[in-house]
Amino acid sequence: MTELLKGIAASDGIAIAKAYRLIQPDLSFDKKSVDDSEGEVKRLKDALQKSTDDLQKIRDKAVETLGESEAQVFDAHLMVLSDPEMVSSIESNIRDNKVNAESALKDVTDMFISMFEGMHDNPYMQERAADIKDVTKRILSHLLGVTLPNPAMIDEEVIVIAHDLTPSDTAQLDRKYVKAFVTDIGGRTSHSAIMARSLEIPAIVGTEKITSIVKEGDMLAVNGIEGDVIVHPSDEQTKDFQAKAKAFADQKAEWEKLKNAQTVTADGKHFELAANIGTPKDLEGVISNGGEAVGLYRTEFLYMDSPDFPTEDEQYKAYSAVLEGMEGKPVVVRTMDIGGDKELPYLKLPHEMNPFLGYRAIRVCLDRDDMFRTQLRALLRASVHGQLRIMFPMIATLQEFRAAKALLDEEKAKLEKEGTKVSDNIQVGIMIEIPAAAVIADKFAKEVDFFSVGTNDLIQYTMAADRMNEKVSYLYQPYNPSILRLIKNVIESAHAEGKWAGMCGEMAGDQIAVPLLVGLGLDEFSMSATSILKTRSLMKRLDTAKMSELAQKAINECDTADEVVALVNEYTAE
Ligand SMILES: C=C(OP(=O)(O)O)C(=O)O
Ligand SMILES: [Mg+2]
């Protein structure tokens, strides 16, 4: 039966394809006594063989798509499967205790896991514990006859359905086959939504119930521009979605024409349109969408894509590649912003009640300065390859900025003493994403070279509304006068000290917000690369004096976000 579901439109685009449920199956079982031990041993051996076949296939695919070194983790898993000590312990457990294979497997692997996890001074063995956990899940799935989903193995066109997608799940999606994704939870500024926009995968988040409605293989039609999902679309609805997909493709072709054009308003004022990236691979999208700079390189993805802390040289290579790829255009590299919805297993952060308000980003870096210094050295060494700007995330106080800057200066002095060349022209700035910093932006402006407003966090902290929680997503209100006042304060404080102010939160590419931000005099707009051309097209139609009048009116006369939207529509109507 046809069913229409509404969610939060998270990434533009339209898709029609079969559903692929990316959902972990239930692996619970009962411990049972079994007389036919040989029968259980045979079940175990079959499950081990099937798991080996799976892992072999997954490994081959990983070599093909990610390369030999990324595929090594599967070698470790295969080794666990063929470890004679472990396999024979499970078999003996089945025979000696007359239990079912599931329970014998779990007893033995749990014992190995706790033994390895207890080896605190041996990180290598601790990682083996994680491998055993993964492999146990796979063997159990075969014993129980359920399927473990594996997004990396998708080889036909599908729409992924999930309760939630982590940033690392999202990074694994192959856009050749994954035509869209739809989740139960999440908000427009959760990192999986942000990544969907850079991968150009249409996405809808926060539908609350997609996973309980849609079965594997159900036909779906997804409109990521409006946030509509149709389950089992009729022929007529399919035609309607196909027509919308064509209109969207035509619109994109129109925007494409502006790829090499200047970003200027109707009265000839230039604004810098920059892109947000997560990895050096994203540069392709920045160039093809005519980005004038990189306004935010989220370096934490470099850490998240790696099984252990990336070395100074590995980081140096990544940063140099981005600086060189941009051919002298500015590149704002943000130091590691881990925490919140971005997890780093090997950092072993404690579980927190409120991870977005907890131990994250600069707070971790100032505490674990060994790790931070490595990143700063890599950045300083890379600085000779282009126009580097270093940005610290989640700054709440001036002391934090000063401490981070002092570490940077120390590492710079050390490198120079060692005879390593470092650029003399590195701007050092901060993200404004904590209201405390926005309020005293005038103080910060005396010490930093630039600001970049991180509205994804600034809005969640100002409105006290978790950016991941669809139940409070109505409070993600970029046009609320409270937010506009904070932004105005930041821009004016920067300009009073002759500094520049940019924005790298999703608001910078929001088509209702852009006229207001032009009116407030924001200097740089950094967004998902896929939003650049439509923003350039919009700016061509704006007059700065008129937008300035609009912004002042919105801030002084409007009471609510809705009133601001109505005013913007009035000022931008042609
Ligand atoms: C750009 C921002 O950083 P992130 O989305 O990575 O938290 C922000 O908070 O607006
Ligand atoms: Mg942030």
UniProtKB/TrEMBL annotation:
Coiled-coil blocks: 34-61
Cellular component annotations (GO), alphabetically ordered: cytoplasm
Any one Gene Ontology BP term: phosphoenolpyruvate-dependent sugar phosphotransferase system
Matches recorded under InterPro entries: PEP-util_enz_mobile_dom, PEP-utilizing_PTS_enzyme, PEP_util_AS, PEP_util_C, PEP_util_CS, Phosphohistidine_dom_sf, PTS_EI, PTS_EI-like
Residues holding phosphoenolpyruvate: R298, R334, N456, D457, R467
Residues the record marks as active site: H191, C504
Keywords from the named record: Coiled coil, Cytoplasm, Kinase, Magnesium, Metal-binding, Phosphotransferase system, Pyruvate, Sugar transport, Transferase, Transport
Cofactor(s) annotated in UniProt: Mg(2+)
Annotated binding of Mg(2+), by residue: E433, D457
Stretches assigned to the PEP-utilising enzyme mobile domain: 155-227
Phosphotransferase system enzyme I N-terminal domain segment(s): 6-128
Record-listed E.C. numbers: 2.7.3.9
Domain PEP-utilising enzyme C-terminal positions: 252-543
Pfam family, one: PEP-utilizers
Intracellular or extracellular location(s): Cytoplasm
Gene3D superfamilies: Phosphoenolpyruvate-binding domains, Phosphohistidine domain, PtsI, HPr-binding domain
PANTHER family named among the record's database cross-references: PHOSPHOENOLPYRUVATE-PROTEIN PHOSPHOTRANSFERASE
Role description: General (non sugar-specific) component of the phosphoenolpyruvate-dependent sugar phosphotransferase system (sugar PTS). This major carbohydrate active-transport system catalyzes the phosphorylation of incoming sugar substrates concomitantly with their translocation across the cell membrane. Enzyme I transfers the phosphoryl group from phosphoenolpyruvate (PEP) to the phosphoryl carrier protein (HPr).
NCBIfam families: PTS_I_fam (TIGR01417)
Family statement drawn from the similarity comment of this UniProt entry: Belongs to the PEP-utilizing enzyme family.
Protein's recorded name: Phosphoenolpyruvate-protein phosphotransferase
Organism listed in the record: Vagococcus entomophilus
Native organism taxonomy: Bacteria, Bacillati, Bacillota, Bacilli, Lactobacillales
